[in-house]
Amino acid sequence: MSGINKVILVGHLGKDPEIRHLEGGVAVASFPLATSETFNKDGRKVEQTEWHNIVMWRGLADVAAKYLQKGKLVYIEGKLRTRSFEDKEGIKKYTTEVVAENFTMLGRKTDFETEGAPRNGARTAETDGYRNDADDLPF
Amino acid sequence: MSGINKVILVGHLGKDPEIRHLEGGVAVASFPLATSETFNKDGRKVEQTEWHNIVMWRGLADVAAKYLQKGKLVYIEGKLRTRSFEDKEGIKKYTTEVVAENFTMLGRKTDFETEGAPRNGARTAETDGYRNDADDLPF
Amino acid sequence: MSGINKVILVGHLGKDPEIRHLEGGVAVASFPLATSETFNKDGRKVEQTEWHNIVMWRGLADVAAKYLQKGKLVYIEGKLRTRSFEDKEGIKKYTTEVVAENFTMLGRKTDFETEGAPRNGARTAETDGYRNDADDLPF
Amino acid sequence: MSGINKVILVGHLGKDPEIRHLEGGVAVASFPLATSETFNKDGRKVEQTEWHNIVMWRGLADVAAKYLQKGKLVYIEGKLRTRSFEDKEGIKKYTTEVVAENFTMLGRKTDFETEGAPRNGARTAETDGYRNDADDLPF
DNA sequence: TTTT
DNA sequence: TTTT
What's the CATH code of the domain at C21? Predict the structure, then answer.
C-alpha cells in the first residue's frame, strides 16, 4: 500500500543553488537549507540549527537557479530520500536529501529581486508557489 | 529567525521498536518505517520503498513500546535531525533521523491490540494521537 | 507575497462521492470526510468527530468516482476555500471546503477493490497517491 | 479510529488579535489571516486571497496578544473546527475556524518588535515557535 | 553554510 | 481585513 512521505521546511539557503545538467539535459539544483530553532535552556536562549540537503529537478531546478540565492527565506515541500554513494576512499556512505516538489519564497519583495533580473516587476507567478509538474522523476 | 522543520509520514514499521534507557532513565525508542510509493514506468507498475529511521523520546517512547509493532500502519509527525557518529572502524558517518513529536495509529481496531494488552477496550486516548509533551528534548 | 494554505487529513468518507459535471464537461466530486479524535475527559474516553466538506476537480474527481467509497480510509492533501452561496430562503451563507490536490488510499488491499473493478490486481498507480496535475482550477 | 486533522498556513494578519477572557479566566485570541496565491490567467497575473479565521486558546492566546499584530507574517499550525451559532436574526449558521496549536513568526527581526516591547533583544524563545501545551482544549 |  |  502507498504511504506518505512529506517534508515541510521554512529556512534560509546556506549557499547559492548549484546547478548540474545530467546526460539528456535534465537539470538538477541542490543547496543546503538551514532551519533554526530557539529554545530556553537553564534560562539562557540557545539556538539550534539543522541543515538539510535540498534537491530540485527539471523545471523546478530552473526556477531555483533563477530566483533562489544564499540567504533567502523559502518554504519548501518535498519528500525524504536516502541514497548511498562511495566517497573518494571507496567507503560506502549514505546521505538523506529532501527532494523538493514545490517551493514558495517568503520575505520582502526586494528579496525576490536577483542580480540578473529587472528591478521592476521582475517577480512572476512562477517565483512564488512554483509546483513541480514533473512527477515522473527518475527515482 | 526561527524556521520550520516538519516531517509527516504514513507507513509501516519494519521492525518492533527497540527501547533503550539512557543514564538518568530517559527512554528512547527507535525503529525503521517504510513509506511506499507506486508509480507507472513504461506501462508497468513499480513500487519504490523509502526507509526512515524513527526516534521517539521519553513518554512517547513508552507509548511506542506498548503499542507499536512490526507491520503496523502509523502516522508520524516529527522533525529531521542529522547527527554524526563513528562506526566500528572509526570512520565518521552521518545519519538522518526523524525525531517523532507525536504519532497516531491507523488501520483496523484489531490492529491496536497487542499481546500484552487486554482485548477489550484496551485502546486508550494515548494510543492514537499521542503528543509528546516533552519539548525539552536534549538536542 | 504568496502564502501557504495547506490541509492534511486522514479520515473516513461519510458518503460515496457525489459527481457532477459542469457545463464544459469539467468533473467535480464532493463528499463529507470524518476525522475523529479520542481524548480523556475526567477519566472517561470521549470521541470528537469533525466533518469536512471535500471537493475534487477534473482528473482527481474521476479517480475519486472510481475508487472512493463510503467508509474508506483516505489521506487527503488540499487547501481551504470559503465561498458564499444563497440558501433556498435567499439567505447568504458561507461554507468552507477542502479543495483536494491529491489523495492516497490507506488501509487493507481489499479496501481498494470496488464493485466495478476487477478483483485481481485492479489497483493501479493512480489509486494511491494520485496528484492533481490541473493546477488551473477555476478559482 | 483516530484520524488526522491538520492545517498549515503562512500568511499575514488582517487585524490585530482580539482577546477575550471566558468565565474562569481562559484567554481566547482570534484574528483573520490572509493567504495569497498568485497565478497566471490568460497571460495576466491574478492574485487570489483566502481568509481564515484563526483561534488561539490559553497560553497561546497570551503569546499572540503580546507579539502578533496586523500585517505580520506568521506560520500557523492547527486543526479545522466547524461550529454553529445563531446570528442576530436567529438564523442558524456555520463557521469554520482554524484552532491554532502553535505558531512561528516569520520575517525580519524588526517585525518581531512591538509598540509595548523593548527595542533591543525583546524577542524571547517564546515568540518564535511557541507550542500550545494545553491539549485539554474545551472542545 | 543561513538567519535572528 | 493582509501582503507583494
Answer: 2.40.50.140
